[in-house]
């Protein structure tokens, strides 16, 4: 049970924690103390719900077409290997850290920031591939898919709450290109490890 939770956590962390517009904006709002916990709650709630949609959808497909399980596994392995390769590619090609996004003006209200956070999250096409397709796919072939989902959702909660609580010190730490290269190398290893574990489960 714990192994499935841990697998869900590390896969989700590898997907969520990356140099991107959403993290830069969340970090910038956190530094300015503009509703950081509201933003974090919106972001991890959307992630958790989309992951749950993936678990239900892929689980339903699995029950209707049990013969498709090996193909789902191979798709998951291929996606994880692709993500691992991308992570190692960034190690050798990325020479910048996470630059804090600076809003042009302060948000006017909590409802305004909720809309902004939802827009930034839901208009990112990668969020659906990462949460619904990849997380849902891998979870569906686990013995306890909702334990895997819980690990994945926990990773999102932990990351966004950390951004909300530690905006200023994190902005200094995450600006280092070397730290991101080390992180990407670790993520690459994790993705390959999870892919290998899934592949072994088919034999």
From TrEMBL:
The keyword rRNA-binding does not apply. It comes from the Bacteria. It is found in: Cell membrane. Keywords: Cell membrane, Membrane, Transmembrane, Transmembrane helix. Pfam families: LysE. InterPro entries: LeuE-type. It is a multi-pass membrane protein. Its main location: membrane. The keyword Cell membrane applies. The chain crosses the membrane at residues 6-27, 39-59, 71-92, 113-140, 146-166, 178-199. PANTHER family: ARGININE EXPORTER PROTEIN ARGO, ARGININE EXPORTER PROTEIN ARGO-RELATED. This is LysE/ArgO family amino acid transporter.
